[in-house]
Automatic annotation (TrEMBL):
This is Class I SAM-dependent methyltransferase. Residues 1-20 are annotated as: Disordered. Coiled coil: none annotated. It comes from the Bacteria. The lineage of its organism: Bacteria, Bacillati, Candidatus Dormiibacterota, Candidatus Dormibacteria, Candidatus Aeolococcales. Residues 7-18 have a biased composition (Low complexity). It comes from Candidatus Aeolococcus gillhamiae.
């Protein structure tokens, strides 16, 4: 395990977290899946081909409902064991429509950055190709809560000191996020991409200057104002796909925010 963590630290960090998923999580995350479905319901047709990047165990996306509506669903993640778990949970009809694609969206760049940092080196800026996802083109592509997980978990597991970790994230996370966003958008000729991100969270000992309740209340009137409120707190701002969209001059068609109860006492704001 230690050798694997040093060889492919970003990959190992994510597969380890998927393996730790507790059984009650799927039921607890149902409101979050409902929120995603409200965004997708009007977008999906019976002939659609959908890709979900960062699908993992499938707990955060309404996979059964998506698979019941569309012709084909590609679950894309670097953790193929988690993907098999996600497919196994669905009905037989939906399982036949699901394709599993083991794929690292950074093409090893996150692993190389984390490995260099662990060795006390300055990582070489990655050469990132914004190529389509395997199986493209798709009618709709979903980036499912993966942006903040591209690099950060690996640095935590490698015990990189907080100051050094923050410096690495601020330098390299925007590159990885922009590349990932670019890959999703070139994977659909219609530009229909749903990016789901976790900009801020609350848990015991992790205080924020704004409450989740206040952000969600603001979102009912003005989602952009709510996002500005969330930005007042501490969160993975260097992994925000919205910043990448602005950099690419890609217009944001709609914004939605909801409560994602990650665990008892651990609450996230989800933003799409």
């Amino acid at each position: 395990m230690a050798n694997q963590r040093l060889r492919a630290p970003a990959t190992q960090a994510n597969t380890t977290r998927n393996a730790r998923a507790e059984l009650r999580r799927h039921a607890r995350w149902e409101p979050a899946r409902d929120a995603v479905w409200r965004l997708l319901d009007a977008e999906l047709t019976s002939e659609a081909r959908v890709a979900i990047l960062g699908a993992g165990n499938g707990d955060s996306v309404p996979l059964q409902r998506i698979g019941s509506r569309v012709r084909h669903v590609a679950l894309v993640d670097l953790d193929e064991t988690a993907l098999r778990t996600a497919r196994r949970r669905q009905s037989r009809k939906v399982r036949r429509r699901i394709e599993l694609i083991g794929h690292d969206v950074t093409n090893g760049a996150a692993d190389r950055i984390a490995t260099a940092v662990a060795a006390g080196q300055v990582p070489t800026p990655p050469h990132l190709l914004e190529s389509p996802l395997p199986g493209a083109p798709y009618d709709l592509v979903i980036g499912d809560l993966l942006y903040s997980q591209l690099l950060y978990p690996a640095l935590v597991d490698l015990n990189v000191p907080a100051k050094r970790r923050d410096a690495v994230i601020s330098r390299y996370a925007p590159m990885l996020t922009r590349s990932t966003v670019g890959r999703l958008h070139v994977s659909t000729p219609y530009g229909r991409v749903l990016h789901i991100h976790d900009p801020i969270a609350w848990w015991p000992g992790h205080r924020q200057p704004i409450s989740l309740k206040d952000i969600l209340a603001s979102a009912e009137r003005d989602p952009r104002r709510a996002i500005s409120l969330a930005a007042q707190g501490a969160g993975p701002r260097h992994s925000d796909p919205r910043a990448a969209l602005h950099a690419f001059s890609i217009p944001i068609r709609a914004t939605a925010l909801w409560h994602w109860q990650f665990a008892p006492g651990v609450d996230y704001l989800a933003c799409a």
